[in-house]
Amino acid sequence: MFACAIVALLSTAFASGHGGVVSYNIGGKTFQGFQAYVTPIGQSTIQRQWATYNPITNATDANMACNSPGLTVNPMLTATVGAGSKIAAYWNNPWPHTIGPMMVYMANCGGDCTNVNPASLNFFKINESGLLSGTVANGQWGSGLMVQQNSSWTVTIPKSLPNGNYMIRHETLAIHTANQPQFYPECAQLTVIGGANGKPGPTVKFPGGYSATDPSINIDVYSSTATTYIVPGPVVWSG
User: Fold this and answer.
1) Has domain 2-223 been given CATH number 2.60.40.10?
2) How far apart are CA 21 and CA 202, in angstroms?
3) Are 136 and 117 in contact (CB under 8 A)?
4) Rounded CA gap, 142 and 164, in Å?
5) Where does the secretion signal sit in this chain (predicted)?
6) Alpha-carbon Rg of the chain, whole angstroms?
7) With the CA atoms of 167, 170, 175 and 176 taken in that order, what torsion angle do they form, in degrees rounded to the nearest 10?
8) Backbone φ, ψ for residue 222 (5° rounding)
9) 52: alpha, beta or left? (left if phi > 0; alpha if psi -120 to 50)
């Protein structure tokens, strides 16, 4: 009975057009993500908890860093990744939202990420993909490209990133509803090896990295014929 209820709940959530990152591939190894709507007891993952498939709808929400509640599980895992190597995040497939940008951030935890409140971290952006072609209403977006790639997004860890423990934050921003943004941030814990002496930046905190009045967030794409779009947040640090 309980299992049937969970399946029904997940089906309803996905049917409503929401979701999140469900797994990662790092160095050819797959890491299961946190399973929302399932008790965190007994779950072991590199991903911080996210309790619901519903989006965050306020740019200044307290849970903007790593989704709600953004807590750890026990035991919490950390994936080792080499600087210059790739990491892929997989959303529930097919991801339903094709209008909006993709962003990926990282933040040095200054120690074991398991003990860190993600809202205290300084995030720098390592990847973004906004409007790729066409108009904001009918063009090709980063999120649309993600869907075409089997609802996955692959990024390269900057080669000059210093070794250490990092939070990686994948985010897609759905802007298909006028002036009602939908944020889907997800975080996972990494240990970076083989790095160098780069100086990542600029950095932002979440909440704080975005403004609710940002025209790239508070936007009605259907009333515009614009062919350019500025992705929210700081510029990309390529390392």
Assistant:
1) no
2) 25
3) no
4) 29
5) 1-19
6) 17
7) -150
8) -80, -10
9) beta
User: CA separation (Å) from 188 to 7, 62, 74, 108?
Assistant: 25, 18, 14, 12
Q: What is the pLDDT of residue 17?
A: 61
**What's the one-letter identity of residue 231?**
V
- Evaluate whether 91 touches 148 at the Cβ level (below 8 Å): no
- First CA to last CA across the chain, in angstroms? 51
In the predicted model, what is the mean pLDDT of residues 75-94? 97
Average pLDDT over every residue of 80-90: 98
Specify the DSSP class assigned to residue 119: G
| Backbone dihedral angles phi then psi of residue 59, each to the nearest 5 degrees | -60, -20
Domains of the chain by residue range: 2-223
Identity of the amino acid at 107: A
Q: Please enumerate in sequence order all residues whose Cβ is within 8 A of that of 98, keeping only pairs 6 or more positions apart, or say none.
A: 141, 143, 144, 147, 176
Amino acid at 78: T
Give the helix ranges, DSSP H, for 25-157: 142-148
For residue 236, with 0-12 CB atoms within 10 Å meaning exposed, 13-18 middle and 19 or more buried, which class applies?
middle
| pLDDT tens track for 131-146 | 999 999 999 999 999 9
Q: pTM of whole model > 0.90? A: yes
- Closest listed residue to residue 91, CA positions, set 36, 41, 142, 23: 23
| Mean pLDDT of the 178-191 span | 98
Mean pLDDT of the chain: 94
